[in-house]
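Session log. Operator J.P. requested a structure for one protein chain; no other inputs attached. Running the standard single-chain path with token output.
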Amino acid sequence: MPLDLESLNPDQYDAVVHPGGPLLVVAGAGSGKTRVLTQRIGWLIESGVHPMRILAITFTNKAAGEMRERVSALVGPVANQMWVSTFHSACVRILRAHADLIDFPKSFSIYDAADSQRLVGYVIRDLNLDAKRFPARAVQARISLWKNELMSPEAARDRAAGMLDVRYADVYAEYQVRLERAGAMDFDDLLLRTVQLFKRRPEILSMYQERFQHILIDEYQDTNLAQNEIVLMLGAAHHNVCVVGDTDQSVYRFRGADFRSIMQFEQAFPDVTTVVLARS
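Structure written below.
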């Protein structure tokens, strides 16, 4: 399936062949946004961009696999040299290479949601808190939101609105101590620690800015603050960032996503080109 630019409508065409710089594609359901993204990747590669210089982010592993298949159909097996992944998978790859620079073993463990909730439950018990008043699931969800806001336990405690929030922050602090002692990260840490790595070690950020000359993000309206920070940091040097967002829906709102990401993108890249895709 070669590039098929002639079948694109004018707005789709403009997005696919955007020459460079920040690009915001506003696309609703049925507007062909996935096709636009894959055709753009194919166009970049055919224009001479090496696949290893491209980072494409989707929100699920299934979507990442489907995008890789579509790009492979366009440009062949060279697409296998691209990073096509979720935010979390990309962060794991980065941290496996550099976690020692932020005092974690490169072989750090990753706690899934069940592991995380179990550890929160142990902390609640050991702090002699009432498990009915502080259910592990609810406390873990609050900790997750704090991490997605890039908020440390100390900052969470400082912003506490009352004693209940103070206790939540106390659990957060002890939970983090135990994670670090175990050489482990939870899913939210994968984002938080990547931001921390880039801020503490600007030479590592610079390396990945150089590596990824083109960054493409699907479902941008669903990024949380930590994810958005990673995008803005990686794109700060070259501004070749293409994001696709639908302001009519945010299916991951419960994970801390909101429309701030799109507003922050426009603020970070005032030279942005915006393309609105109508239904195809």
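Operator note: Confidence is low (pLDDT under 50) at residues 250-257.
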